[in-house]
Amino acid sequence: MKPTPKISLLLDSARGQYIPRDFVLDFDLSKFQGLSQSDIYDCQDPDNEWYWGAWQNILDTAQYIEDGRVFTLHQDGDLWLICLDELTQEEKQNFGFED
């Protein structure tokens, strides 16, 4: 099996407000750690009053771990899966992680 790249585009910004819904419905969440069932449930319906708060919780806590490599979610319009430890300084700057 091919290793996950250090930067992967999961969902593009064209999905707009549906990125949280599409993430929780279309991806295998069993591969992620740090997700609460209530946040997953709240993100299934964009009309849910807790939708955006639950999504922020997911962005803040979700981790995908593969062979000791830790990936986190990052949204800047598009939704990315990123291994911060493997990014170059330039890549970190491009994603806004460092000045």
Explain this structure:
The structure is a single chain. This protein is α+β, with helices and mostly antiparallel strands. The chain contains four helices and five strands; from the N terminus they run βαβααβββα. It has helices at about 20-25, 35-40, 50-60, 90-95; strands at about 5-10, 30-35, 65, 70-75, 80. It has a five-stranded antiparallel beta sheet with strand order 1-5-4-3-2. The protein is globular and about 40 Å long. The relative contact order is 0.20. The model has no long low-confidence stretch (mean pLDDT about 95).
Low-confidence stretches: none
Q: In order across it, which strands form the biggest sheet?
A: 1-5-4-3-2
Give the biggest sheet. 5 strands, antiparallel
Mean pLDDT: 94
Helix content: 25-40%
CA-atom Rg in angstroms: 14 Å
Q: How do the helices and strands follow one another from N- to C-terminus? A: EHEHHEEEH
Q: Quick one: how many beta strands? A: 5
**Shape, per Cα inertia axes:** globular
State which percent range the strand residues make up: 15-25%
Measured between the Cα atoms of the first and last residue, the distance is 36 Å
Report the structural category. Answer: alpha+beta
What is the helix tally? 4
